[in-house]
Amino acid sequence: xxxxxxxxxxxxxxxxxxxxxxxxxxxxxxxxxxxxxxxxxxxxxxxxxxxxxxxxxxxxxxxxxxxxxxxxxxxxxxxxxxxxxxxxxxxxxxxxxxxxxxxxxxxxxxxxxxxxxxxxxxxxxxxxxxxxxxxxxxxxx
Length: 141
Hints:
Elements: H1 15-27, H2 33-36, H3 40-53, H4 58-74, H5 78-87, H6 92-101, H7 112-127, H8 134-140
Helix pairs in contact: 1-3, 1-4, 1-6, 3-4, 4-6, 6-7
C-alpha cells in the first residue's frame, strides 16, 4: 500500500521538526547551507538524520524533507541571499517557521517573493513591530 502524499500540496509540519535538518547541518559545520547550497552527499546525510530522528509515519518525514529542500531552493534566489546576508542568523527560526507553515507545491517550490514577504512578517511579529515595506524603504532612500 502506498502512503498518501500529495506533491501539489505538501502537508504542514511543525517548526520544531523543520529545525532537525538545520541543526544537523549546523552540527556538521554547514550552517551557511542556505547561502551555499548542499551537495548530493550532504543532502543524503540530512535525509538520513531526519529519517533516524523521527518515529513518525514516513509521510511526515518526507514532508519535512520536501519542505527543507524547498527552503534551500528558495534561498538560492538573489533576494533571499541578500536578506540573509543583511539579517544574519536571527532569521533562521522565522525562516524555518515560514517553511513549515507556508503552502508548498513540491514541483514548484516556494515562491521567493511570497516567502520573503511571509518571512519579513514573521520577523516583524517576533520583534513586535509592523513589517517593513521594501518598496517604501527604497523610495525613501
